[in-house]
Design goal:
Number of helices: 15
CATH architecture of the largest domain: 3-Layer(aba) Sandwich
CATH superfamily of the largest domain: Aldehyde Dehydrogenase, Chain A, domain 1
Oligomer: single chain
Number of strands: 23
CATH topology of the largest domain: Aldehyde Dehydrogenase, Chain A, domain 1
Structural class: alpha/beta
Helix content: 25-40%
Length: 487
């Protein structure tokens, strides 16, 4: 079923107030240009500063609440997200373009994140340590940073804000969320759920707008204590410049060019399934996508033939359609970028399987998954993040060659291997230069309760998610107390 729903008028949410601004802009579905998901107005710098002021004003009161109080609110939000997963998943699918099952699963993941971090709110452990001096007691505790600016991308418009906002709130920080202008409705619904769960006014503020207009304000202004960002490497470097100059703590996730190694001894069914879903799930629009398929000679031809057939069988269409395997690309700009990379590879003499525009009943940004064969590690398509349904294949001689090619990238987010060899799997886990390693799994697909992050150009700062989120969202205090000092 591909019928659409009504247009929602959404606002900024600052200090608990719903504020309209600017001329109305339309949030258009990438599946259907006639489907207006939401109308909204962009924030000005003054409105962004108003959000900072609201977060600063609310910070002392929120920090003074108990972990149990904060945890209860996060738990309530998680339970509501779970109850409304089908409803909110539909909004997400309309707005971002991933298939409805993927969108519903994303909302449920956000629910799991809030439930987990709700529990973490009462586990902000410290230490008691003996001093080197007699009769002195030392305690080491963690306290909130203050105001956290969250700059979120469009590709996971509910899950990524959730895994930043939830730990920030759990540990007593106040938050300003600026989502991508491509997905304002998903962010608005998430913030609304948190306020319905009992969040006090000013603790979580939503500002809608473009990074070029309000990004500098939200990453370098007085009142901001930390910035957590997910997006492109170029924008991440600008954020780092701003935060460094202002002395603000930063956490950056900036993409990947993730290798999936397929060895001769691999189970071919596992290899094809994991490569297909890893490269083209969520329309390939995720930083963990299996975008470089590094395949040894003995299995190369069989693997390529089988993967090409599986790609051809995939149904591409409207995100809300029944039985759809892959939805549209997010917008015209991303579609143009994807096709430029494919065209450049073909012009360089590489063979391209798929990659055509897909005709559909609605006017959307539909492209078939593309596989580029016969590539070299130095090709642009193997060095630069495309961020779409485009994967390349590199033929290698053996495992050692595959490992060297896998590590030959400025990025280091995730890496995977498909093999039945315990020795190769063990060695790859140790020597792959990535923050996350997968064995007989796609590079995409991570759990909510363990660290997320990479190396090199992929990441900067402490890891996200799980217990490790505490490293970024808290600061350490060491207190010395002399015994008998108090009367």
């Amino acid at each position: 079923m591909t019928s659409t729903s009504e247009t929602t008028a959404i606002t900024h949410i600052i200090g608990g107030e719903r504020i309209e601004s600017g001329p109305a802009q339309h949030d258009v579905s990438p599946s259907d240009s006639t489907d207006i998901v939401a109308s909204w107005g962009a924030a000005s710098e003054d409105l962004a500063r108003q959000a900072i002021e609201a977060a600063v004003a609310a910070a002392p009161g929120w920090a003074a609440t108990t972990g149990a109080q904060r945890g209860e609110i996060l738990t309530n939000a998680g339970l509501e997200l779970d109850r409304r997963a089908n409803e909110l998943g539909r909004v997400l699918a309309r707005e971002e373009g991933k298939t409805l099952p993927e969108a519903i699963a994303e909302v449920r993941r956000a629910a799991q994140i809030f439930l987990f971090q709700g529990g973490q709110a009462v586990r902000n452990r410290g230490q008691l340590i003996d001093s080197v001096r007699a009769d002195v007691e030392i305690s080491i505790t963690r306290e909130p940073l203050g105001v956290v600016s969250v700059i979120a991308p469009w590709n996971f418009p509910i899950a990524i804000p959730a895994w930043k906002i939830a730990p920030a709130l759990a540990y007593g920080n106040t938050v300003i969320l600026k989502p991508s202008e491509a997905v304002p409705a998903s962010a608005w619904h998430l913030v609304d759920v948190l306020h319905r769960a009992g969040l006090p006014n000013g603790v979580l503020n939503l500002v809608l707008g473009r990074g070029k207009d309000i990004g500098d304000t939200l990453t370098g202004s007085v009142g901001i204590d930390a910035v957590t960002f997910t997006g492109s490497e170029s924008t991440g470097r600008r954020v780092l410049d701003r935060t460094s100059a202002a002395g603000i703590r930063a956490q950056l996730e900036m993409g990947g060019k993730n290798p999936l190694v397929v060895l001769d001894d691999a189970d071919i069914d596992v290899a094809v399934t994991q490569a297909l879903t890893g490269a083209f799930g969520s329309t390939g629009q995720r930083c963990t996508a299996s975008s470089r398929l590094i395949v040894t000679r003995g299995i190369h031809d069989r693997f390529v033939d089988r993967l090409g057939a599986a790609m051809a069988a995939w149904r591409v269409g409207h995100a809300l359609g029944d039985g759809i395997d892959m939805g549209p690309v997010v917008d015209q700009g991303q579609l143009d970028k994807d096709r430029r990379y494919v065209a450049a590879a073909a012009a360089a003499g590489r063979e391209v399987v798929g990659g055509q525009l897909e005709e559909a009943e609605t006017d959307g940004f539909f492209m078939r998954p593309a596989l580029v064969l016969g590539t070299e590690p130095t090709d642009a398509i193997n060095r630069e993040e495309v961020f779409g349904p485009v994967a390349s294949v590199i033929k290698v001689d053996d495992y050692q060659h595959a490992l060297a090619v896998a590590n030959d990238t400025p990025y280091g987010l995730t890496a995977g291997i498909i093999t039945t060899s315990l020795a190769a799997a063990h060695d790859f886990r140790k020597r792959a230069q990535a923050g996350m390693v997968m064995v007989n799994l796609a590079t995409a697909g991570v759990d909510f309760h363990v660290p997320f992050g990479g190396r090199g150009a992929s990441s900067f700062g402490p890891r996200e998610q799980g217990e490790h989120a505490r490293e970024f969202f808290t600061q350490v205090k060491t207190a010395y107390v002399a015994a008998g000092a108090a009367s």
